[in-house]
Every structure is written in structure tokens, then in C-alpha cells.
């Protein structure tokens, strides 16, 4: 009887496990210079989203960052390169603790834009296989030399440890090959939606019961 029941539950879980967007963070903190700082000419940052926050695995096809309604990246801060990595790293211990370039996979290079609702959606030119066991590191490099106003910024959510590292400058254009000493370790993560992650949306039933049990059948009931 238990085997029959478990097979049924696992089958239902498979049906309801779907590729979806996983949204992490709903904070409204700005001026954290992550994933980029539009008020400066150049930015390079890395941020770590833990497997506990993502709670799934799959092939990441796109990501969305969220910014203030005043943000306009056009011409000044729209030239992005994005990298990803599966990593056991969970925090940054110092302003030189960048994940090395050899561990990164470039997933996007091109121009980005803010849509009318304040979202920057980046469709990956190289989809990334996130394994669901390690943490996910996302690195963002912004290469346009111009800069916008101080009101141009991305929304971030506070964390309990240094989950982001960033460098921004009007003169030096940083990148993963030889990143300079960062100016900031941030106890924040940029709010993000990650598309292509498969999460298990099946919630365990309760009040399991069996009646009319015979050698070949039984009536099963539960509360969904």
C-alpha cells in the first residue's frame, strides 16, 4: 500500500514540477553599485545567490534585474557582459576575493535596456546549466564610458553576509581577467528573477488514510 501511494505522489510532483521564473529579493535599497552603478562609467561586480534561495536546478535562459523608474541606461550604461558559475563560494571574504575568470562562463554580451516598468531583462546568448547543488554566481561587467544621474539605480535586498563584491570607476574599466581591488563588499543582493529553473511545486499532502483494505485493493484519501 505504501509503495502504491508513494508512486502516486511522486507522479503528481513530476507533473507540477515546471520550468519557471524564480524571483529572489523584494528590497528597495539602492546605491549599492550592484549589479552595476549607472552613475559611474564602468562597473564590474559579482553576486552569489545561494542554492537555498533558488531551490531548484535547470538551464537558465534569461534573467531580470529591477531598477528605479528614473533609470535610463541608454548610451551610458547599456554595454554589458554577463558571466555565471556554479560555485561552493557563499560569501566574499575580502575586497580581492573575486571568483577567478577561469571559473566563469560568459553567457551574454551586448546592449541592455530598461522597459517601462523598470525591468532589465537579459536573454542569455549561451544558456547556463545551473546544477541546483552549488550556489549561483552572477558577474556583471558594464563597459559603456558614459554615466547617468545619481537617481539611476537598481533595487537590492539586504543579506546577513557579504554576498556581493563590486568596483566602479569613471576611468578604469575593470573586468574578470585582472579585476582591481574592489571598493565595496555588500551585504546585499540585486533583486532578480531567474528563468529556466525547475522547482518542485508539489506540497506534501496531510491526513493520509486507507479504508476498505483487502489483499488486492484499498481506498486511499488525503488532504491536498
Which descriptors apply to this entry?
224 residues, mainly beta, 6-stranded antiparallel sheet, 4-stranded antiparallel sheet, elongated
Describe this structure in words.
The chain has 2 helices and 14 strands; from the N terminus they run αββαββββββββββββ. It is elongated. It is 8% helix and 42% strand. The chain has 224 residues and is mainly beta. The chain has helices spanning 2-16, 51-54, and strands at 18-24, 42-49, 57-66, 79-87, 105-111, 119-130, 135-142, 156-158, 164-169, 184-186, 188-190, 192-199, 206-211, 219-223. Residues 1-18 have low confidence and may be disordered.
Brief sketch in words of this structure:
This protein is mainly β. The chain has helices at 2-16, 51-54; strands at 18-24, 42-49, 57-66, 79-87, 105-111, 119-130, 135-142, 156-158, 164-169, 184-186, 188-190, 192-199, 206-211, 219-223.
